Amino acid sequence: MPAAPVGAPLRRRAVFHRLRVRDVRSLTPTSVEVTFEVPPELEEDYGYLPGQYLALRALIDGEEVRRSYSICRPPVPGRISVAVKRDEQGLFSRWVHSALRPGDELDVMSPQGTFTSNLHQLEGRHVVGIAAGSGITPVITMAHRILEDSASGRFTLLYTNRSSLDVMFIEELADLKDRFPDRLALHHVLSREQRTAPLLSGRLDEAKLRTILTCLIPPRTVDEWALCGPFELVQLCRDLLEEHGVDPAHIRFELFTTGEPGDAAPPRGRSVAAQADERTHRIDFTLDGTSASVDSPINANESILNAALRVRPDVPFACAGGVCGTCRARLVEGNVSMRENFALEPDEIDRGYVLTCQSHPTSDRVVVDYDV
After folding, report:
1. Stretch 295-301: mean pLDDT, rounded?
2. Which end of the chain, C or N, has fewer beta carbons within 10 A?
3. What is 244-308 written as a DSSP string?
4. CB atoms near residue 143 (< 10 Å)
5. What average pLDDT does the chain have?
6. What pLDDT does residue 324 have?
7. CATH classification of 16-109, choosing from 3.30.360.10, 2.170.150.70, 2.40.30.10, 3.30.300.30?
């Protein structure tokens, strides 16, 4: 991701709190909005900027499961909401749709993420959001902020779904359009439903995007881009914007996946034992002011996160796939190999931060600090 803009949130220590479910509201046949009650003593902990997300934690069939979902509403005292789209292969999302009810309590991590717009420079700016499916959840909060907190800021949304029944927040988007007809442009692309305009019908592929960027949303008229969706679409948008000469510093993006379909979820604290004569990496880490150490067998090739979880189950993480950035820590000593990074900003890497879920020791001793 590009460097964080002015006004982007400082990353803070991720902490879980038990919150009560206030409401579970249907958005589409396959998506719901879950609203949590935030007690007064936790309101500061749950303050957020548009584009940030919450990690949720639940015990499902005896297994601890964590998933991250974008906050989908402008800030309102005493409540915070996320949207959850059901994935037939997704254990957590199916559980939310079938079992979560108002009055239930859930572990909810304090807001995280740097997928935020430059919120200190709204006047006269034109921001374009390109979203697919549930990728609308962080983008719609940006639209609210830019339109409601400025007199001249403009927002254009290019939003792709299979059909009109799959469009999340369709009423909210229509209401925004009614309130800001001159400053909000909505372009719905439906892949399985014929629209009046051929350009907005069918799959949002490379040819269609090229035409849209040439005729409908010329990049030279745009100050900032916010992209949210599956890896393939986000990467295609980034490539085409680069062709148009758009500075990467003005492109924000967030991914659903890392583009590695079929990969199993990374192990999370799996049991690893070193033999008496086996060489190991020594991993030292600091968390909440307390130091801990763990030996990791070289042949196990485990991540720093997995090793740390074996001795500190409270080590922060959410996706464990290099996307959310919750598990980041600063490398104080030693060397690591970081396989994937879709979360850290270039300036964070320059300052020595790594994603511990993706980082594997390459030196005999590694020291990381989760508190910095």
Report:
1. 90
2. C
3. TT--GGGEEEEESS-S-TTPPPPPSS------TT--EEEEEEEETTEEEEEEEEGGG---HHHHH
4. 28
5. 89
6. 86
7. 2.40.30.10
